[in-house]
Write a structure and sequence with these properties.
Elements lengths: L7 E5 L4 H11 L3 E6 L13 E2 L2 E2 H6 L3 E5 L5 H11 L4 E4 L5 H4 L4 H4 L7 E6 L14 H7 L20 H24 L4 E5 H8 L1 H4 L14 H4 L6 E3 L2 E7 L5 H11 L13 H4 L6 H12 L4 H10 L2 E5 L3 H6 L1 H6 L2 E6 L3 E6 L23 H7 L4 H9 L5
Parallel strand pairs: 1-2, 1-6, 2-5, 6-7, 7-8
Antiparallel strand pairs: 3-4, 9-10, 10-11, 12-13
């Protein structure tokens, strides 16, 4: 048995945020029906890379789903979707420009025939305010959300965070909101609307940084580093790059012992080395002193450095490449990559589930679907006859 077994989800989203949320629900055992436009989710064309003819992005975000292709802008297509939502537990949508309300597919319209529906709306900038009807890409959201200030050199142009931070975090927070609404439904017997946005998610993700803004007397230190120092490009051993950290609370004597052992005795009386907070990456002098650390570390192998740092209560990690990460014994022990068979792409590998429930574990019941793969199957389950399904297909309402 899975945690969300028996929960049915209608997903009317494209790209990253919505599909990621719906996939998480599916991983937890919900039955997810992906309602795609006739041309398919936009991410089906995002590439390279492709696996065969399939977009790697789509494959990575759409396992554990069935696909039905419907023209929801047509009256018959809207009727198909309305019929599907009458028995659904959850609906996700990322329509913009007031499409849902105009097509009477908004929460207020659909909850009339399904009072238990949990309806999740995903937007770029929220559902009210001057930007409520605007679309927004990952780059736009990061720029508006000030995330681009976290990377790059002081005085240089801002830099986009490489990962799709706005979209992925919005998918995670939508997943949390939906679970909270489902829990509340068990108590009250009614569903509700859940709203998430790229902008709101990014601002929440930055809260540890901005908490320090309430009294920013000193514009340096761990939570404000990115405003006052260049990027941290890690340290260099004789056989590769690495990061290291120390736990807080070293005595001055213990810190000086480490400086001696690292081969930096000549700097022991340098005021910039007076404490590990000042001399390492989380202090005001960290980036200035990094070349001095590297000069000492280049003479040692990473294993020598790690042993030294661990002896003094710290930790050191090599920088992993993508292949190294997935072949790392720790990643293999946790099963952080899973394989499945796809009808056209063959054997494909995907990242595993981000949680572990010991009694009701996540699982993979379906590979990512081909476009409209389950249209006939789903319509038949919803009460459409074979003749009606064929009529909808000939009219171009479904694919």
């Amino acid at each position: 048995m899975s945690a969300l077994q028996g929960i049915s989800v209608i997903e009317c989203t494209q790209g990253i945020a919505g599909p990621y949320c719906a996939m998480a629900l599916g991983d937890a055992g919900a039955g997810v029906l992906k309602v795609e436009p006739l041309e398919g989710d936009a991410s089906r064309g995002w590439g390279p890379p492709f696996v065969g003819d399939e977009s790697a992005v789509f494959l990575g975000l759409n396992r554990n789903k069935r696909s039905i292709a419907v023209d929801t802008a047509s009256p018959d297509g809207r009727e198909v979707l309305r019929r599907l939502t009458e028995t659904a537990d959850v609906m996700l949508e990322d329509w913009s420009g007031g499409f849902a309300r105009k097509m009477e597919l908004d929460y207020e319209s659909l909850e009339k025939t399904n009072s238990g529906l949990v309806y999740c709306s995903m937007t770029a900038f929220g559902e009210k305010g001057p930007f409520s009807d605007r679309d927004g890409t990952e780059l736009v959201a990061q720029a508006m959300g000030e995330t681009t200030s976290s990377l790059g050199g002081i005085g240089d142009a801002p830099v986009r965070v490489g990962a799709d931070l706005a979209n992925m975090s919005t998918g995670i927070f939508a997943f949390q909101g939906i679970l909270a609404a489902l829990f509340q439904r068990k108590q009250l017997g009614r569903g509700q609307q859940v709203s998430t946005s790229l902008l709101g998610s990014l601002m929440f993700m930055r809260s540890t940084l901005w908490a320090a803004h309430s009294n920013p007397d000193d514009w340096y230190g761990f939570h404000l580093d990115n405003y006052v120092k260049p990027p941290d490009h890690c340290y260099q051993a004789s056989d590769g790059q690495f990061y290291f950290t120390f736990a807080r609370g070293h005595t001055p004597e213990r810190w000086h012992e480490f400086i001696d052992s690292a081969g930096l005795t000549e700097y022991k009386n340098d005021p910039r080395f007076k404490s590990y907070q000042e001399a390492l990456g989380n202090g005001r002098y960290g980036y200035v002193l990094q070349p001095l650390w590297n000069e000492a570390f280049r003479r040692k192998s990473f294993d020598e450095i790690r042993s030294l740092i661990e002896e003094f209560g710290g930790n050191a990690w090599r920088l992993n490449s993508y292949p190294q990460l997935f072949s790392h014994p720790q990643a293999e022990a946790l099963g952080l990559a899973v394989e499945m068979e796809h009808p056209t792409a063959g054997s494909i590998k995907s990242t595993a589930f981000p949680w572990l429930l010991h009694e009701t574990p996540a699982g993979i019941s379906r590979p990512p679907p081909t476009l409209g793969q389950h249209t006939s199957e789903v319509l038949s389950e919803s009460g459409y006859s074979e003749a009606e399904i064929e009529s909808l297909r000939k009219a171009g309402t479904v694919r």
